[in-house]
Automatic annotation (TrEMBL):
Gene3D superfamilies: 3.40.50.11410, 3.40.50.11420, P-loop containing nucleotide triphosphate hydrolases (3.40.50.300). Residues 178-276 form the Hydrogen maturase F dimerization domain. Residues 11-126 form the G domain. The keyword Phosphoprotein does not apply. GO terms for molecular function: GTP binding. GO terms for cellular component: cytoplasm. Pfam families: HydF_dimer, HydF_tetramer, MMR_HSR1. This is [FeFe] hydrogenase H-cluster maturation GTPase HydF. It comes from the Bacteria. It comes from Clostridium cochlearium. The keyword Nucleotide-binding applies. GO terms for biological process: tRNA methylation; tRNA wobble uridine modification. Transmembrane segments: none annotated. Keywords: GTP-binding, Nucleotide-binding.
Length: 397
């Protein structure tokens, strides 16, 4: 895997009315044509993504969105898609045409972004066309904010100042990692990576790659093996592992092979801790004890893939749940970037590790469940609970 995963990039989204110049700014920002630009209002329809590096932040994702003043039935659908982008936005850039005198949409944007606690920068665009620039800046500051950067996307004027202002908005706690506070320099970490039918051909899955990289970054040592070689691998070690990380699907097989004095956890649980609220997810798993036959449960995955025999979401978790609850339950499934909107009917939501989501998006999904008082957990946490080792796999934290 050669590129930084999309979910690990800081998402910077550009919002505003049609023809405010969002696409032109992104093209100037990236110094290449990312989005199609024209004088026709509504040229950008679906969100456009561009991955790039921004020093000293590192990997970022630029997002171009449709105008919030789009019209008609299709226009309303585009607006809804733009609102969904807010749930994954780390930093927002509100783009305004400097000739604009009506800030109704921008005030709405500021309110919605504020609800989500998203840092904002305001780009006052097209200053090369301004009749009275000082008046335009004063007008925007009076109604919106002092955090305004006057720019010209067409002339590429002040684009560097816009970048500097965006960099200032990066939260200071952004540099957390999957193994923060768990693995130290010179530790030995054992990674158990089963290569079954569901394993991708010719590569490891994303959480495994990320954990392996984090081990190397921390100056620790890693041993990677399949579960079928676990016993032999343990025999050949010159020292006891400081931590064993396994695929959650084989908890039941691995738990008795790893001595009780060795810390054990899973890739999915590490992802839950890194991108969400591990305490909330543990509480969600424990709520299974109060479920009854006939209850509604949602199992949600962030990515879309073809289900195979033994699929963790479609087969393994439902089977273990029915056994634990003692009867049939109603299970709905969702997948992809769109989280189910109407979650009120569910007694429990079980989410994947969210390796394809950025932290902001995962936290927003957790908060939606929290606001509705619906227990939520993740695949790794629920499998640990159903296998009776939840306390053990959380000891590493």
């Amino acid at each position: 895997m050669q590129d930084t995963p999309k979910g690990n990039r800081i998402h910077i989204a550009f919002f505003g009315k049609r023809n405010a110049g969002k696409s032109s700014i992104i093209n100037a920002f990236a110094n290449q044509q990312v989005s199609i630009v024209s004088n026709v209002a509504g040229t950008t329809t679906d969100p456009v993504y561009k991955a790039m590096e921004l020093f000293p932040i590192g990997p970022i994702m630029l997002i171009d969105t449709a105008g919030l003043d789009d019209e008609g039935y299709i226009g309303n659908l585009r607006i809804e898609k733009t609102k969904e982008i807010m749930d994954k936005t780390d930093i927002a850039v509100i783009v305004i045409d400097c000739k604009n005198k009506d800030f109704q949409y921008e005030m709405y944007l500021k309110k919605e972004l504020g609800k989500r606690k998203i840092p904002m920068v305001i780009a006052l665009n097209k200053i090369d066309e301004a009749d009275n620039l000082e008046e335009a800046i004063s007008r925007a500051k009076e109604q919106l904010d002092n955090n305004i950067v006057p720019i010209s996307a067409l002339q590429k004027e002040n684009i560097d100042k816009l970048k500097e202002k965006i960099i200032e908005q990066i939260p200071s706690n952004n540099e957390t990692t999957l193994l923060e506070g768990i693995v130290e320099k010179k530790d030995l970490v054992l990674l158990i990576t089963p290569q079954d039918l569901q394993a991708p051909k010719g590569r490891l899955i994303l959480p495994q790659v990320q954990v392996l990289r984090d081990i190397l970054d921390k100056g620790a040592m890693a041993m990677v093996l399949k579960d079928t070689e676990l016993k032999e691998g343990l025999k050949n070690l010159y020292k006891k592992p400081d931590l064993v990380i396994t695929d959650s699907q084989i908890f039941n097989k691995v738990k008795d092979m790893i001595p009780i004095d060795i810390k054990l956890t899973s890739f999915s649980i590490l992802m839950a801790r890194y991108k969400g609220d591990i305490k909330l997810l543990i509480e969600g798993a424990k709520s299974i004890s109060s479920l009854k036959p006939g209850d509604n449960i949602l199992i949600s995955e962030a990515c879309t893939h073809h289900s195979l025999k033994g699929d963790i979401a479609k087969e393994k978790i439902p089977k273990l749940l029915k056994k634990k609850i003692g009867g049939e339950i109603n299970i709905d499934f969702s997948s992809g970037g769109d989280f189910t909107k109407n979650i009120e009917k569910y007694k429990l939501i079980i989410h994947c590790g969210g390796c394809m989501l950025n932290k902001k998006q995962m936290v927003n999904r957790l908060n939606k469940a929290r606001e509705k008082n619906i227990p939520i957990t993740n695949f790794g946490v629920v499998l640990a609970y159903l296998n009776g080792i939840l306390d053990r796999v959380c000891e590493a934290f």
